[in-house]
From TrEMBL:
<dbReference type="Pfam" id="PF02931">
    <property type="entry name" value="Neur_chan_LBD"/>
</dbReference>
<feature type="domain" description="Neurotransmitter-gated ion-channel transmembrane">
    <location>
        <begin position="231"/>
        <end position="378"/>
    </location>
</feature>
<dbReference type="InterPro" id="IPR006029">
    <property type="entry name" value="Neurotrans-gated_channel_TM"/>
</dbReference>
<keyword id="KW-1071">Ligand-gated ion channel</keyword>
<feature type="transmembrane region" description="Helical">
    <location>
        <begin position="414"/>
        <end position="435"/>
    </location>
</feature>
<keyword id="KW-1003">Cell membrane</keyword>
<dbReference type="GO" id="GO:0045211">
    <property type="term" value="C:postsynaptic membrane"/>
</dbReference>
<keyword id="KW-0732">Signal</keyword>
<keyword id="KW-0675">Receptor</keyword>
<keyword id="KW-0472">Membrane</keyword>
<dbReference type="InterPro" id="IPR036734">
    <property type="entry name" value="Neur_chan_lig-bd_sf"/>
</dbReference>
<keyword id="KW-0406">Ion transport</keyword>
<keyword id="KW-0628">Postsynaptic cell membrane</keyword>
<keyword id="KW-0813">Transport</keyword>
<keyword id="KW-0812">Transmembrane</keyword>
<dbReference type="GO" id="GO:0005230">
    <property type="term" value="F:extracellular ligand-gated monoatomic ion channel activity"/>
</dbReference>
<keyword id="KW-0325">Glycoprotein</keyword>
Amino acid sequence: NGGAWMSLCDGKLQCKEGHSGPTHESIQAVFDLQSFRPAVNLSNPTVTNISFTLYAVLGVKAQILTTFLWLRLYWFHEFLIWDPDECDGVTKISLPVKQLWSPDIIVYDVDDDVSQACPFVYVNHTGHIRWDRMLRLVSACNLKIFSFPFDVQNCTFTFGSYMHTNVRVSPALTFKEMSGNSKRYLEASGEWELVNILGETSILQFGIDEWDIITFWVVIKRRPILYVVNLLIPSSFLMIIDILSFYLPPHSVDRASFKMTLILGYTVFLLIMNDLLPSTANGTPIIGQSIYFSVCLALMVISLLETVIITNVLHHNSMKYKEVPNWVRIVVLKHIARLICYRWLEDEAPATKQEEGKSNNLNCTSPPTVTQTENNVPVPHSTSNYGGNCGTFHVLQGKWCHVGYILDFLLFRIYLLLISCYAMVIICMWCIWISQD
């Protein structure tokens, strides 16, 4: 082997007449030196050029990024040089990678590496070697999913030598070229699209030893259409139905049962869609069960509580026959009714004291009628007494009926205002995130 080392150091690979390329003997001499870094002067570093193509994003979940890469390594082998004119014009050959020295380049921030390396390398007559590898990487990534499903993730791949301190790394292509090549493959691949690939080289130091590393930042953006169709639109439909349920007449329809059915259906919807929502230890998406869906569920519960309050007011005196307190008349029948533009006809004004002194067993003498106000709010009234469409048409119940309708309309407007503000905040936040991409 000493003679082979000297002959290789003296010059180029030998070729024989009638042979296409270097001879088997001269290449075997290179194979015998597999354990040694291919440098005549071992103090000179071996430069390894790295490029990769992001072919697919297989999964992003629970701080784990699963990707499929086409990795390409280039390095210079000082002992694999020949003259094409002396070797029948051959400029490139392929050799088994197991028979040659190869740089021990690894990805530092990877939990699992499933590699399908090509068993051969391509050797140019100038001594430059190209080795292609297909990698399925399971790497750690600090996911920021608060803006899900309009989130943008920035994950890193750090390449460097595992053991050799005299192996230098550098990008084989510009980062713009790597990004362009990857975008062509990712355009029709899964729910993620590539935004950009950035990178820089640096030195990793442990004690007196230094390693060259190159760090790539892979910026990917989620395609939100799947989650908009499967999560946001069904949730919005249920919220719209809950809003429309306020138009059910509270005095004749069991509105509370209808709303409880909606809440039950919404809960089942959340259980079914739970697997689609990402979750991490350091954050929750805005449409996750603890934020967006939880707020929607809370609004539906508030809507149910409002219905319970109104039902209680409408039937307040069904057994007690209590008079409407004076402060309720002033606050509700006067000020709140004026605030929400709730009006009734003059002859429907609150009953006089003479009517109030009538027997508690007095019944209405004619069926109630309904007048529509300019806000399309039904106002029950009777031609013979005040408010007769609440149960037994008693005079006192008629007064409580007006109180119930006014409070119902007031709480309905407050509920609409809450939902509108919440929807505007969510939409504005998503628009900001989309524009920043």
